[in-house]
Design a protein that fits this description.
Helices cover about 25% and strands about 30% of the residues. The chain has about 290 residues and is α+β, with helices and mostly antiparallel strands. A hairpin with a 3-residue loop joins strand 3 and strand 4. Helix 1 crosses helix 4.
């Protein structure tokens, strides 16, 4: 299966269609007591725990799915569940933060194979109305011995959220999209840069070497558009579109900012399904 099936889809299908409205109404009071971030974590964790009360966090009549491998509506998920592994699914949320109506999670999955993923949920009136995700297969530690999810998890510098988001947006547009690599030193503290990409070593020098090696092999990584930047304190997630090795690709890049500089980076890189293989028409992005 080319793409991991959304956790929201699986939780939804666990409950009968005809009882969905009642479930949400009965749990509305409990739902509103939690932050959007807490609701997102509860929903994803329920994939492993089986806590069906988490379904109360989803709007039963207004829910848009951007995982292109999942059809719209509850009935679209029935076929997926028939292929669930015998031991069930695993989901360990490592990081979670929120930005306005959006909640973001960074999760280790065992979901049709070990994967790492970012999920973005949009909330309206306390309920989830929209969902995006991006996944990469779990890989071995990178050249610096770092995994795809280890590293700092504590949210700090809440007063610097907008400043940090602006820094990341400028970096993505200036360096990754416009290719002005000579300006990279503006965004880092010397060579200090902790890297969790599976193929790249620590340091700005490690990034430069990886790009050079890819170029020698004829492998291109092109960023063409930044769709959204979301953040809370020292953590900022950038969602971009482009190509990798010539294939249409979705790039989710999570940055940790420290003292006004990019200090740490995690990512997932996912090939976008061609139109003929898509099960919904909502688009991979459309924030």
């Amino acid at each position: 299966m080319k793409q991991i099936i959304t956790t929201v889809a699986l939780v939804l299908i666990m409950t009968a269609c005809d009882s969905q409205n009642n479930t949400n109404l009965d749990n509305m009071e409990t739902t509103t007591a939690l932050s959007n971030k807490d609701k997102a974590v509860a929903l994803i964790s329920s994939l492993e725990t089986g806590d069906q009360s988490a379904i109360a966090h989803i709007n039963p009549t207004n829910y848009t799915q951007h995982n292109l491998a999942v059809a719209e509506g509850l009935k679209g998920f029935g076929e997926v569940l028939q292929h669930a592994p015998e031991g069930g699914f695993k989901a360990n949320v490592v990081r979670a933060f929120q930005d306005g109506d959006y909640a973001i999670t960074h999760t280790e999955y065992d979901f049709f194979g070990p994967k790492v993923g970012f999920d973005i949920f949009k909330f309206e009136n306390g309920l989830i109305t929209e969902h995006w995700d991006n996944f990469s297969d779990l890989a071995a530690a990178n050249p610096s011995g770092r995994t795809q999810t280890d590293g700092i998890v504590t949210i700090t510098d809440l007063d610097k959220t907008e400043q940090n988001k602006a820094l990341v947006k400028d970096f993505v547009n200036t360096v990754l999209i416009n290719g002005e690599f000579d300006k990279m030193p503006n965004y880092f503290d010397g060579d200090a840069y902790i890297q969790h990409n599976t193929m790249i070593a620590d340091g700005v020098s490690g990034l430069a070497k990886a790009l050079e090696d890819m170029a020698k092999q004829g492998i291109t990584m092109v960023f063409t558009k930044n769709h959204i930047v979301l953040g809370e304190g020292n953590f900022v997630l950038s969602v971009s579109e482009g190509t990798f090795a010539g294939n249409p690709t979705s790039f989710y890049d999570l940055f940790r900012i420290e003292n006004g500089k990019i200090a740490e980076h995690w990512d997932t890189i996912e090939t976008i399904l061609p139109e003929e293989d898509r099960k919904n028409d909502n688009g991979k992005f459309n924030f």
